[in-house]
Amino acid sequence: MGIIVNGSLFTLHTKNSTYQMKVDDKGVLLHTYYGKRTDETDYSYLISFADRGFSGNIAAARGDRTYSLDYLPQEFPVCGSGDYRVSCLNADLGAGVNDCLLFFDSYRTYRGKYSLEGLPAMFAEDGDPVETLEILLKDYKDDLYVRLLYGVFEDHDMITRSVMIENKTGQDVKLSRVMSTCLDFSDKDLDMIHFYGKHAGERQAERLSLFHGITELRSTRGTSSHQHNPFVIVAKKDTNENMGECLGFSLVYSGGFHVQAETDQIDQVRLVMGMDDSDFLWTLYPGEEFTAPEVCMTYSGSGLGGLSRSIHDGFYRHLIRSPWKDKRRPVLVNNWEATYFSFDGKVLLDIAREAAKMDLDMLVLDDGWFGKRDDDYSGLGDWFVNEKKLGCSLKELSAQIHEMGLSFGLWFEPEMISEDSDLYRAHPEWAMVVPGREPIRGRSQLVLDMSREDVVEYLKERLFDIMDSADIRYIKWDMNRSLALAYGELFPRERQGELRHRYVLGLYEVMEALLARYPNLLLEGCSGGGGRFDAGMLYYAPQIWCSDNTDAIERLKIHYGTSFGYPMSAVSAHVSVCPNEQNGRVTPLKTRGICAMQGAFGYELDLGKMTEAEKEEVKVQVKTFKKHYRLFQFGDYYRISSPFENGDFTAWEYADREGKEACLSVVFTDLHGNPAPHIVKFEGLCKEKRYEVSRDGEPLGEFSGAALMNGGLLLPMPRENYDSCQFYACEK
Ligand code: GLA
Question: What is the CA(631)–ligand 1 centre distance, in A?
Answer without folding.
Answer: 29
